[in-house]
Amino acid sequence: MTLITVDAVSKAFWIPTVRRDTIREHLFGMLQPRRFHRLQALDSVSFEVRDGETLGIMGRNGSGKSTLLKILCGIYPPDRGRVERRAAVTPILDLGVGWNPELDAVDNVFLIGSVMGLSLGEIRRSMDAILGFAELQEFANLKLAHYSSGMSSRLAYAVAFHAVRDVLVLDEIFAVGDAGFRQRCEERYRDLHAQGHTVLLVSHDPRTVTSFCDRALLLDHGRIVMEGPAREIADRYVSTLTKRISD
Amino acid sequence: MTVGAETMSAVDRSRPPILRAGLIWTLVRTDFKARYHGTLGGFVWALLKPMSMFVVLMGVFSFLFASNPTYKLNLIVGLFLWDFFAEGTKSGLTSLHARGYLLTKARVPPWILVVTSISNAVITLAVFSLVIMIFLISAGHPPTGQALAVIVIGFSLGSSVLFLRFRDLNQVWDVVVQAGFFVAPIIYPLGILPERFHFYLYIWPPTPVIEFSRAALVAGVMPTTTGHVYLAADAACCLAAGMLIYRRLSPRAAEHL
Ligand SMILES: Nc1ncnc2c1ncn2[C@@H]1O[C@H](COP(=O)(O)OP(=O)(O)O)[C@@H](O)[C@H]1O
Ligand SMILES: [Mg+2]
């Protein structure tokens, strides 16, 4: 069964020659009109995600991987095309950043957890497990303002891994924390996969994609240039990278 | 070619209401906690702000308006309503920016983040209303608090998405609020100004709300039906304008964080 259909999705960003973020800059800049150029982040991307599969998305920096995931999760609207979701999607994106620094870990977990679709009861019941997973039990009542960046991203992954409903969407995961934490993430990930959860995973690490994915896509300048078994895509990705360097 | 269409299954389209209620409760609770450091003392402090303002202004201006027996009551009603307006619009304006980290993590309707950011101001106003009701036996009460809340929500919806594009909008609004304090007849009775200016003062949304509350609470006079219609139209216009801007700009809010 197809869980997610991405049908001819395009997305462009208009990048101005000068950034103007304030009313003051707009007022003073009225006499010097700025130009915009169009950055086609995604160009008519189509693919399907089937029930139970693990799909990898590879591509160089700026090739549109994160934008694709955000559209797929409904965080960005597409300019053109359609995304059809037939299952609940749990995104794990941009997790390093963004907490309320004035709140402690427990309250932040309540916030992020309820945004990710957990009920208050579920959050209360999994609180110990979440803090345990992140190894932050002793710091449960410490304000996030006093956390190191490693600690807060560990907490983010811990919440997200407990919030998974049907489809798990991961952007550049396994890049945070120490070796022990990464290992726990990988184990949890394998558990979820074994339970039959569908996974979408963005990475530019060929090892991650070959060891965690069945199938993969290669994205370049917002287009899918290749689709196939994870190993082939990873090899192709590595060879395009090395070709670039030797050029 | 379908343009920007999205279809979702039943699972995704309608979050169970219980989940949404949980999210709203968490947003309100954590906002309260972060603001007052989780203590009741912090909240009492928030009530003290308009109170101390009242004491100072009363000390200075009740001499000026000594002949006006209801000046003090009018002042305190005006100050608390104004405090709600000023605090509510300020936190609404920055709400999406301040809670943007939630918008980029998952699919959340941005309006939930905007509307819940006003909860603190609502709580302060509610406590004040309880207190004032004990002291003032009123001849009924026109729905002024509700009208002001609608105005604040309308303003917040529109300004919160604009703030993501114009990052000094909060500074501009601070100036407007400061000047607006004197446009609304809070420290002076509306009557001291010539009649022909009243219309202009009534355009500033807090003015009719404050005048209405005073009429009912202090003077014990219920405003006319025309007055009620004006109040409702005033609130509806603010809400409609805010919703229009919000509908246009909120779908791409996450891209501007
Ligand atoms: N919110 C945004 N506003 C403007 N440009 C953006 C935004 N998000 C992404 N882009 C641009 O779109 C392109 C693709 O970005 P992204 O999807 O993050 O690539 P990747 O994740 O593959 O590195 C980049 O050139 C990036 O600068
Ligand atoms: Mg990326």
Q: Which descriptors would you attach to this protein?
A:
heterodimer, A: Rossmann fold, 6-stranded mixed β-sheet, 8 helices, B: mainly alpha, 12 helices, binds adenosine-5'-diphosphate
Shape of chain B: globular
Sheet with the most strands of chain A? Answer: 6 strands, mixed
Helix content of chain B: over 70%
Distance between the termini of chain A: 43 Å
Mean pLDDT of chain A: 90
How many discrete structural domains of chain B?
1
Number of strands of chain A: 9
Helix and strand string of chain B, N-terminal first? EHHHHHHHHHHHH
Regions with little confidence, pLDDT below 50 for 5+ residues of chain B: 1-14
Explain the overall architecture.
The complex is a heterodimer of chains A (247) and B (257). The longest helix of chain A is centred in the last third of the chain and has 17 residues, at 230-246. Chain A has helices spanning 23-28, 65-73, 105-115, 120-133, 149-163, 179-194, 206-212, 230-246, and strands at residues 2-16, 36-50, 54-58, 80-85, 89-92, 167-171, 198-202, 215-220, 223-229. The model of chain A has no long low-confidence stretch (mean pLDDT 90). Chain A contains eight helices and nine strands. In chain A, helix 3 (105-115) crosses helix 5. Chain A has one domain (2-246): Rossmann fold. Chain A is globular, with a radius of gyration of 20 Å. Chain A has 247 residues and is of the alpha/beta class. In chain A, the strands form two sheets. In chain A, strands 5-6-7-3-8-9 form a six-stranded mixed beta sheet, with helices on both faces. Chain B is globular. Chain B is mainly α. Chain B starts with a strand and ends in an 8-residue tail after the last helix. The longest helix of chain B is centred in the N-terminal third of the chain and has 28 residues, at 71-98. Chain B has one domain (3-256). Chain B has helices at residues 10-13, 17-36, 40-64, 71-98, 100-103, 110-116, 119-135, 144-163, 169-183, 195-203, 206-217, 225-249, and one strand at residues 5-8. Chains A and B meet through strand 1, helix 1, strand 4, strand 5 and helix 3 of A and strand 1, helix 2 and helix 5 of B. The complex binds adenosine-5'-diphosphate and magnesium ion.
